[in-house]
Task: structure prediction
Amino acid sequence: MAQTKTRKKISKDNLTAIAFLLPSFLLILVFVYGFIGWTGYVSLSNYNTIVPDFSFAGLKNYIYLFNDFRFQADLRNTLFFTIFFIGLVIILGLGLSILIDQKLKGESFFRNVFLFPMALSFVVTGVVWQWLLNPSTGFNQFLSIFGIQPKWYTDTNILAGFEWGSIEFGLPVAILAVVIAAVWQMTGFSLAMYLAGLRGIPDELKEAARIDGASEFQVYRKVVLPMLLPITVSVIIIMAHISLKIFDLVYAMTGSGANFVTDVPGVYMFETTFRGNYYANGAAIAIIMLLLVAIFIVPYLWSNRKGGQ
Result:
């Protein structure tokens, strides 16, 4: 007997859901993925003048960038900024959340104080910290009493530097000033994440560890911190996404800096595209930034998808 295949009818609820989602899907398809595709296309062209030229250039623009002194300096600065930024945000956020979790008096006050910087834009943060870390004003007015005069973001020294390509590879001292400003603004985010995680750990688990003879340090090391690992991964991914595409904070606070010691790919892309009219080079920088972010985001999304399945 021939088996008849029955088609599933789309219910009215499904049609309603599709109707609501379709406009957003089309907008994302055009204005996100469409523009990413267009940027990739421009990056492979000769469009480096005011007059459009979409003739195929292959990887010429990418080769130029990786041999360019400024772009090599940008990659160096981004690497050290990302390492110090993520590390300090995790350490300070975790430490402060543990302190607040001790049922302190005025807990809501301290929580709001640490969360307040997140309400500010990076532009405002950059302007404020530019004044605070100005070598002739700000903190140096106080530090001069002790004979200390840091140059902050005007310092051109490279610590532990060695020759790498066209640049001196090492820690640019000036980038630490930008790290301070970024950490000040984003620590509240990691604090909120960790505090929510701490409040979600049952007290019975910690009490059981204490009954078994574990010290308070061992309770946190053996019980609490392992349970906070998913939150730590989330904080790393989100902070890495912010640090790799940072633009407004650096642009408002320091600019590219002397000898490009505080320059980042976002600032270079802006100046190359909208000031120099090198559209293909600017598009290539944008694609490289996208790939750097994807290195962190894609494995995280893939692991979440596998975990969900």
Remarks:
- The domain at 69-308 is CATH 1.10.3720.10 (MetI-like fold).
- Residues 12-43 form the longest helix (32 residues).
- The chain is about 65% helix and 5% strand.
- The radius of gyration is 25 Å.
